[in-house]
Each structure stands twice: as C-alpha cells, then as structure tokens.
Design goal:
74% helix; mainly alpha; 118 residues; globular
C-alpha cells in the first residue's frame, strides 16, 4: 500500500458499530426517513471534523451580510442542515433540547424571511 493511501485511510473516521444510525422501535415513517438520510450522515461523518462547522459559519455569515434572496438562500441552507440534525437526534432529546432546536431553526428562518424582503 502506498503512503498516500495509508494516510487517507488513517484520516477516515470509522462508522460507529451496530445500528447507531437507526432509532430502535421507530415508526415506519421514521425508519424510512432514517434510511434515506443514512448515506448523507455517513458522508458527513467521513468529512474532516472542521468542514461542516466552517461551511455552516460561512453560510451564516453570508446569509446575514448579503441582502436579498442570496442571503435568504444561504440562511435556508443553514436552517435545512439544522433541521436535518434536529430530526435525526429528536428521539433522544429532552423537551428542553427539542424546544431549543426548534427555536434556533425558527430564528434562522425568520431572519431568512427578513433578508429576502430587503
């Protein structure tokens, strides 16, 4: 094996063992949604740890600074990622955690509407 392949393999984070991507005893609708999102979650898991936060911060800054529909689209992308992560983690959250995630998504969407109106 070449040195390049070995270093690429060492950088990959292993997938957690078992069925950690799926909620035990979930409804058929949730099971279907979890199966559809599993590939995206595995892709995000394989990225370097810093990529997703940097992209989200860049989209958030762009969304807050660029007026008009371009800023609104950037904020909608942030809300979509937050929504996906909230949906996936929803069964394990407390009521307080659910409220916080829903409030964060609602705030980002409200600012997106304001940006679209500018």
């Amino acid at each position: 094996m070449s040195g390049t392949n070995r270093s690429a393999q060492q950088r990959r984070r292993p997938i957690p063992p078992g069925n950690s991507l799926y909620t035990p005893g979930a409804s058929p609708a949730r099971q279907s949604a979890e199966r559809r999102s599993a590939a995206l979650l595995v892709f995000l898991h394989q990225l370097p740890v810093w990529v997703l936060p940097v992209v989200l911060v860049a989209l958030l800054v762009a969304g807050l600074t660029v007026a008009g529909w371009i800023g609104a689209v950037a904020l909608l992308a942030v809300a979509a990622v937050l929504g996906l992560l909230a949906f996936i983690s929803w069964p394990r959250l407390t009521a307080r955690g659910r409220t916080g995630r829903a409030a964060a998504i609602a705030c980002v969407l409200a600012v997106a509407v304001l940006q679209a109106a500018r």
